[in-house]
TrEMBL record:
Residues 1-206 form the Legume lectin domain. Gene3D superfamilies: 2.60.120.200. Keywords: Lectin. The keyword Nuclease does not apply. This is Concanavalin A-like lectin family protein. PANTHER family: CONCANAVALIN A-LIKE LECTIN FAMILY PROTEIN (PTHR32401), NON-SPECIFIC SERINE_THREONINE PROTEIN KINASE (PTHR32401:SF51). GO terms for cellular component: membrane. InterPro entries: ConA-like_dom_sf, Lectin_legB_Mn/Ca_BS, Legume_lectin_dom, Leguminous_Lectin. The keyword Ribonucleoprotein does not apply.
Length: 258
């Protein structure tokens, strides 16, 4: 179980007008090499997840706080194990989670092919890199989640689309990052590139610069770069490896526009 965060809080609401959350968009490339249990992109008021549990709790919640409105957490899960207690639809799905692990919206992992005009299934735990886009329109109060393979342009239609007012969940400042966990099966969860923007589309990154999916050795984590100063506009951060238990976030490309 583990988490990896951008090290500084980001403003998601105006202190003078708390009825609307700012729009945001993020794009990242990830890989999961075995089904157990999954990866999430999350927005949280805190980076402290010391009380979170592994396995089906995805490193986010525990038996006591799962579902509590005081969590103030939005997560998009890429779930590779079916957990009946959380009403999972299958063992290969994407879900939008609010304060708990019973998704408010979910669908089997797939992407819309613009060329074929149909949905094509994706296996989340195939180890093949997958591109994800998560976009929130603060005016329309609409959250979209889109997937695609690396050799595919962004689909015209999202996999998930949910009307929701995130100002009811978010505090003025929140942290953005990832969590992952395993159960009986050991698996690697890699984030190969990540771009985030609080307004407009996330800046694209060169897919040719993404790192390989070779298994790192312990020495790879001996000398980690410190967290950089907050960017004034946009920035590309040097490769930075963060490993906590089974989550491996290889942030070779990390672009923030906040």
């Amino acid at each position: 179980m583990g988490q990896a965060f951008y090290g500084f809080p980001i403003a998601f609401k105006n202190s003078t007008n708390s009825s609307n959350s700012f729009s945001f968009s993020t794009s990242f490339v990830f890989s999961i090499d075995a089904p157990g249990h999954g990866l999430t992109f999350l927005i949280s008021p805190s980076m402290d997840f010391t009380q979170a549990m592994p396995s089906q709790y995805l490193g986010l919640f525990n038996t006591t706080n799962n579902g509590n409105s005081t969590n103030r957490i939005l997560a998009v899960e890429f779930d590779t194990v079916k957990s009946n207690e959380f009403l999972d639809i299958d063992d290969n799905h994407v879900g939008i989670d609010v304060n708990g692990l019973v998704s408010v919206e979910s669908a089997p992992a797939a992407f819309f092919s613009n060329k074929q005009s149909k949905n094509i299934s994706l296996k989340l735990s195939s180890k093949d890199p997958i591109r994800a886009w998560i976009e929130y329109n603060g005016v329309e109060r609409l959250l979209n989640v889109t997937l695609a393979t690396l050799d595919t342009s962004k689909p015209n239609f999202p996999l998930l689309s949910r009307q929701m007012n995130l100002s009811e969940i978010f505090m003025e400042k929140m942290y953005v990052g990832f969590s992952a966990s395993t159960g009986n099966i050991t698996s690697n969860h890699d984030v190969l590139g990540w771009s985030f923007s609080r307004e407009g589309k996330p800046q694209d990154f060169d897919l040719k610069l993404l790192p390989s999916l070779s298994t790192p050795s312990p020495s790879d984590f001996d000398d980690l770069d410190p967290i950089p100063d907050p960017p004034s506009d946009s920035a590309t951060v040097k490769p930075n490896h963060t490993k906590t238990m089974i989550i491996i976030c290889t942030l070779a490309i990390m672009i923030f526009m906040i």
